[in-house]
């Protein structure tokens, strides 16, 4: 059961009972990529999303910018349901909600010059003439730290970091309100990730952007996010202010993810070893009954197989989907109490 969540004018996106299902390849079954999510993204914030590979992050990100339609439920953009708009109104609306992907090459046509790629979105929406589009394209390239000389090059003549800057310039020309950043630094050399993240932060201040930042890197997400959502197998496990999620994780899954990081846990949650989750993430075609984390949860109890945990606010603005989480934290790790070894890998991408 889901607690009702009030809509607020400060929410740029409101997600209600969202489900996104895909047919399996043989057509006989359904992949539940997003299987019931409720949350809001507030204007001007950085909303971080972490979770293991296959937990539905990219599917969710694509739906947030209307590249995918909800199978069930709604995604409201400033109170408007884009799925209910006519074609022309939809095109106008969509430019406010943009996405940048992990692969710097994904949005760049290898046969187009950089400036042509940057101007392309403006051409598609029919804004300005060729001269003004080029002027805006060059200004956007300069804003992301690329010299005008880069404009007439081709993608293969730029580094990965430079190409990712081009992708940012591409969406900036449209002056969006929201940018979904899907693993945008994951493919980049570690040495330049910081520069690209700083660029995102500068652009947010300058243009009042809202970010939905999808990443498997907890240190990145904890550093840049105002709030953090933790996904597992198509559902949210936990959502709250970034500092509170890091300092006071409420869900056993979040605790396990954090225990693998160099971020020091608060003393009451500190474990003398890394909590390693057992086994693989189950199939989203047939997720476990009750709590879908139960097959790997170190705190599992009999009730977990029978009842889907409610999405509850347990600390101020901090929600969790676990029967036994309290304001003090997750339920005790049963296996740690029994001093047994916990096997497996808690990778999250
Ligand atoms: N078009 C599609 N058709 C069928 N299944 C899909 C489709 N897109 C995604 N899926 C499945 O939905 C689930 C969620 O995929 P998604 O790409 O959203 O996960 P993710 O959290 O972004 O993973 P990663 O961290 O690896 O990028 C996966 O099981 C995936 O195989
Ligand atoms: S509901 Fe049960 S299985 Fe799910 S996270 Fe809580 S203790 Fe673990
Ligand atoms: Mg993904």
From TrEMBL:
Topology with respect to the bilayer: Peripheral membrane protein
PANTHER family xrefs: D,D-DIPEPTIDE TRANSPORT ATP-BINDING PROTEIN DDPF-RELATED, TRANSPORT ATP-BINDING PROTEIN
Bilayer-crossing regions: none
Major location (coarse): membrane
Stretch list, region Disordered: 326-349
Organism ancestry: Bacteria, Pseudomonadati, Pseudomonadota, Alphaproteobacteria, Hyphomicrobiales
Pfam family, one: ABC_tran
Record-given protein name: ATP-binding cassette domain-containing protein
UniProt-listed Gene3D superfamilies: P-loop containing nucleotide triphosphate hydrolases (3.40.50.300)
Known function: Involved in beta-(1-->2)glucan export. Transmembrane domains (TMD) form a pore in the inner membrane and the ATP-binding domain (NBD) is responsible for energy generation.
Protein family: Belongs to the ABC transporter superfamily.
Cell compartment(s), UniProt: Cell inner membrane
UniProt keyword Lyase present: no
Keywords assigned by UniProt, alphabetized: ATP-binding, Nucleotide-binding, Transport
GO CC annotations, alphabetized: plasma membrane
PROSITE patterns per the UniProt record, alphabetical: ABC_TRANSPORTER_1, ABC_TRANSPORTER_2
A molecular-function term among this protein's GO annotations: ATP hydrolysis activity
């Amino acid at each position: 059961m889901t607690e009702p969540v009030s809509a607020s004018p400060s929410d740029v996106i409101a997600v209600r009972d969202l489900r996104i299902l895909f047919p399996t390849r043989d057509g006989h079954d359904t992949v539940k990529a997003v299987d019931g999510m409720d949350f809001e993204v507030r204007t001007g914030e950085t909303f971080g999303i972490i979770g293991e590979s296959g937990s539905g992050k990219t599917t969710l990100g694509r739906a947030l910018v209307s590249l995918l339609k909800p199978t069930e439920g709604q995604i409201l953009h400033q109170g408007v349901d884009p799925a209910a708009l006519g074609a022309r109104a939809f095109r106008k609306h969509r430019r406010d909600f943009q996405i940048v992907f992990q692969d710097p090459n994904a949005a760049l046509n290898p046969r187009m010059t950089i400036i042509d790629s940057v101007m392309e979105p403006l051409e598609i929406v029919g804004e300005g003439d060729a001269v003004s589009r080029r002027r805006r394209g060059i200004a956007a390239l300069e804003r992301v730290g690329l010299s005008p000389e880069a404009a007439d090059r081709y993608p293969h003549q730029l580094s990965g970091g430079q190409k990712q800057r081009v992708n940012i310039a591409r969406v900036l020309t449209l002056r969006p309100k929201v940018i979904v950043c899907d693993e945008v630094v994951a493919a980049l050399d570690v040495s330049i990730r910081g520069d690209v993240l700083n660029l995102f932060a500068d652009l947010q201040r300058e243009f009042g952007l809202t970010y939905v930042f999808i990443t498997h890197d907890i240190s990145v997400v904890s550093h840049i996010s105002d709030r953090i959502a933790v996904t597992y197998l198509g559902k949210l496990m936990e959502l709250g202010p970034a500092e509170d999620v890091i300092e006071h994780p409420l869900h056993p899954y979040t605790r396990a993810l954090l225990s693998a990081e160099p971020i020091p846990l608060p003393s009451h949650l500190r474990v003398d070893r890394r909590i390693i989750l057992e086994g693989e993430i189950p199939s989203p075609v047939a997720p476990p009954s009750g709590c879908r984390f139960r097959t790997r949860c170190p705190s599992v109890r009999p009730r977990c197989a029978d009842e889907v945990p409610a999405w509850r606010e347990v600390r101020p603005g901090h929600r969790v989907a676990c029967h036994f989480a309290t304001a003090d934290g997750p339920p005790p790790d049963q296996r740690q109490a029994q001093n047994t070894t916990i096997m497996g890998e808690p990778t999250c991408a």
